[in-house]
Amino acid sequence: RNMSSAGPEGRKKMRECDGLIDSLVYYIQGAIADHEPNDKATENCVCILHNLSYQLEIELPESYAQSIYMQRRNISSNDKTPGCFGTRSRKVKEKQQDTPLPEEKSNLRGIESLWHSTLIRIYLSLIAKSTRNYTQEASLGALQNLTAGTGPMPFAVAQTVVQKANGLPSIRTMLHVSHPTVKKTAVSLLRNLSRNTSLQSDIAREVLPDLVLILPESVPGSDIVCETTASICYTLYNLTQNNSHNARLLLSADGLPKIITISMNDSNIFSKASRAASVLLYSLWSHTDLHSAYKK
């Protein structure tokens, strides 16, 4: 666990170590099957996998990276139907259409396991079943790592989490835990997921009211709460930027007074949260059909 946080070279060596990742996954699967998701060894295994998934897409060996992007290109080239607004619309559609997970094999080994749907479901299972904060945080953090970035892998993983593995209910539960780091990591994962336009309706329906609920009335003087608040605002920004229905949902959840209060708190310690709230307010005002509701 300590060695897995030793930087890029350490991660590379450990990912390439024959049988290491397979053994970690095997152990966690056994612990879940035996209804023992809270033991210390499981926590260690998940923390190692969390660290090994950090910057995974950037650090993948060339052969893997090439096969992912080649597969993506083949999928895109098969869809030549222009959208309602011609080429631009088609490009957006190609960028975020349903992407199969790369290297999705039944007899996977080693590094391929790190982004396979089997491990994604294991993380979601641990989030739901473990009561150990470090295990919850590491599982959420691994999914956060896998959904970071704008390449085909993050979008594929995001679709698996939201649509194929029904992961939002488990993630939503983590928004209401008392442990601040677990809550912060859950919000950061949702922020990554919310960048995928094809998932925004599902995410808004499932968790937008919860995000508004956990927004503080005013930002307390703690860095972690300030960062969490900023992440919530940016997640809400992603969900409402191009969707008037989601903006109305935020309004009906009484989110506006909280966001206004946070945006006006311009002292240095709150600047990150204040700036994020201001960006969200500016975006909400772009929905001209809601101006009268806002004024009320």
Structure overview:
With 296 residues, the chain is mostly helical. It folds into two domains: 1-62 and 112-169; 196-295. It contains 17 helices and no strands. It has helices at residues 8-16, 20-33, 40-52, 56-59, 62-77, 87-96, 117-129, 133-146, 152-164, 168-174, 180-193, 200-214, 223-240, 244-252, 256-264, 271-285, 291-295. Helix 2 (20-33) packs across helix 3 and helix 15 packs across helix 16 (271-285). The chain is elongated. This is PKP2 protein. Belongs to the beta-catenin family. It comes from Sula dactylatra (Masked booby). Its main location: other. Keywords: Cell adhesion, Cell junction, Repeat.
Strand tally, please?
0
SSE order: HHHHHHHHHHHHHHHHH
Q: Assembly type of the shown chains?
A: single chain
Question: Any low-confidence stretches, pLDDT <50, length ≥5?
Answer: 75-97
Would you tell me the structural class of the helices and strands? mainly alpha
- Mean pLDDT, all residues: 86
User: Biggest sheet: strands, sense, closure?
Assistant: none
Shape from CA axes? elongated
Domain module tally: 2
Secondary structure tally, helices: 17
Tell me roughly what share of residues is in helical segments. 55-70%
Distance between the termini: 54 Å
Tell me the Rg in angstroms: 20 Å
Beta-strand content estimate: under 5%
Subcellular location: Cell junction
GO biological process, one term: desmosome organization
Region (Disordered): 79-104
Family: Belongs to the beta-catenin family.
Walk me through the topology:
Blueprint: H1 8-16, H2 20-33, H3 40-52, H4 56-59, H5 62-77, H6 87-96, H7 117-129, H8 133-146, H9 152-164, H10 168-174, H11 180-193, H12 200-214, H13 223-240, H14 244-252, H15 256-264, H16 271-285, H17 291-295
